[in-house]
Fold this sequence. Notes:
Elements: H1 3-15, H2 22-33, H3 58-72, H4 85-98, E1 103-107, H5 123-128, E2 136-140, E3 144-148, H6 153-159, E4 166-169, H7 175-182, E5 188-191, H8 198-210, E6 214-217, H9 222-226, E7 239-240, H10 243-246, H11 250-263, E8 268-271, H12 274-281, E9 283-284, E10 297-301, E11 306-310, H13 317-322, E12 327-331, H14 335-344, E13 348-351, H15 358-367, E14 370-373, H16 379-383, H17 387-414, H18 422-434, E15 439-442, E16 447-450, E17 473-479, E18 481-483, E19 486-487, E20 490-496, H19 501-518, E21 521-523, H20 528-540, E22 551-553, E23 562-567, E24 581-584, E25 587-590, E26 594-597, E27 600-605, E28 621-626, H21 644-661, H22 667-676
Parallel strand pairs: 1-5, 3-4, 5-6, 8-13, 11-12, 13-14
Antiparallel strand pairs: 1-2, 2-3, 7-9, 8-10, 10-11, 15-18, 16-17, 17-20, 18-19, 21-28, 22-23, 24-27, 25-26, 27-28
Amino acid sequence: MDKSANDVLSQLLSDAGIEYSAAAVRDIIKGVAASPGSDGAIGPADSWHQLVGLDISSALAGALTSELEIALKIDDGLGDGSNPSKARLADLRGELKAQSLDGFIIPLADEHQGEYVPKNAQRLAWLTGFTGSAGLAIVLKKKAAIFVDGRYTLQASEQVDEDQFEINHLIDQPADTWISENLKNEAVLGFDPWLHTSDGVVRLRKACAKVGAKLSPVDANPVDAVWHNQPHPPLTPVTLLGSDLTGRASIEKRQNTALALQSEGLAACVLTAPDSIAWAANIRGGDVPYTPFSLSFAILHADCKLAIYGDLRKYPSSSIKDLEQDISLHPREDFLPALHNLGAQKSKIGVDLSSAAEIITKTLTDAGASLQRLTDPCQLPKAKKNAVELDGMKQAHVRDGIALTRFLAWLDETAPGGDQTEISVADQLEAFRREGDKIQGLSFPTISGSGPNGAIVHYRVTPESNRKLDQNSLYLVDSGAQYLDGTTDVTRTIAIGTPSAEMKDRFTRVLKGHIALASAVFPMGTSGSQLDVLARAALWQIGLDYDHGTGHGVGSYLGVHEGPHRISKIGNRIALEPGMIVSNEPGYYKTGEYGIRIESLLAVVVPPQPETTEAMGAKPLLGFETLTLAPIDLRLIEKALLTRQEMDWLNGYHHRVRTTLGPLLDKKTQKWLELKCVDIN
Length: 681
Ligand code: ZN
Ligand code: ZN
């Protein structure tokens, strides 16, 4: 940085009465540069200026923006292109030697085990070139391997240098087995205790013990030591959500959770999931893509006090001022000492061992705490939306429905021209969404799949894969947005030109599953896994199925995927409760040809009770209300396959779409919607 630019920035800062030095501001900007970029960012593009000061002059704003442009040009080693893994691997092995390690494990994880991993924690991508969303590498002195699941074997073979890394299938050749087969007696395998859960460490330790090797935590991650220009941890401003959006003050939420802690005799519990902290404190941020939370840790004490540990620069003075009194903010560096103090008092502390980093449990137990395994106590209350949150969700879905309807009408008009591509239409959909009130960003990368690309369940279009929307094909679009009052996730499959009889048959069977789930009534205590069959039965009848879950929970202006409930074939025993939101997304995929999915979000409700429910005791029957409002393509329906009741459901749904959205649309789109929502008989 030349001196004059420094002087200009210093001068502008001092003119504005800001206490940060130019150097401190440049350090903040490094964190901003490592935060989600235009795709995946939450909030307006320059909302980060708040990190420097509120109400800043346009001259200072301009200076900050150009400083950010400079910071974004620094090569952090994560760009694609040439694969430098050989040199990086050599550097890493040098560092392992210096730390007296025979090997090291590199998971794709951050300290919070979240779905999206910030840039500074993309160590696996930096080392191997692999950019999928799940994976793990193990580097030994003479050998290295990467483990990916079935979705990513092809991608890994394209991105990873196979002279340096063996590519293994996570399920067929698990890392545990590989460790037992490749580690020698007395070898020391290092791991970063911030990046593995306690449960994960137990499994790894077993694998090492089998061959007499030792699993050893490192003090400093050896990848960080050799990663030049490693991005800084992300820095985005924390904002407070008022009770007009959250429906409940933080203190009410904490009181209920604290009661649960008291009844177990716990002095406190550790919160490591950023969405739990966001929910408990009624705060939001934008540190990882598509998800409005701030990365931090917290300790919830049995007396309701909540101590948050994170980068204090994320809290503009306006948010600190409005935080509730018994929520305290502490620097991230104070987190482990605080755990140590709890341990030293011989306290009984609750920790979710399936998600908390190993260093947390180790610090507590080493200091003398007794640990109690628990499930993150915020998960279940967070999942059960209150009346204000449900109302917000409904309003967000009206705005989202307007955007989607305008998009579908536009698509109908422009697709026959033959020039539209997966990228151009996804951009148009985003543009319609961004015209809506309260939008903060997208809730996940849009899945925009034409023809065979629609059959790839986790498809993400790139300039290389981009296809035109061909005539007589299907187009699948799965998309969603983050609004201040709710989160959306919707899939519609559209006929471009004339669909084949087979496409109509499969689409109608998927729709039958969608309707069966949407109209289900079930006794209190029923879990999503018990309902899953409803969504698949019409496909099973002719020997077909889909290889993904049927539904996931959705946050209230939080993660688009949240637990603890879900609808899937296997293993979810969490009972569905009133207020929970869950997606309803059966599909059918014919590899190489087309993909079909119909997805709407449902809220669990207590429907009018039939008189016969007396037989069920005091437990009411539950059902669903569909929140998503967007037409389902009638051109894809084979009427002969639908029962009278299914037609009634569809007509009723379309009636609701038409009457709710119609008056809010321009005349032309309204007319289009009327036609798309006609009754079928
Ligand atoms: Zn979706
Ligand atoms: Zn979904």
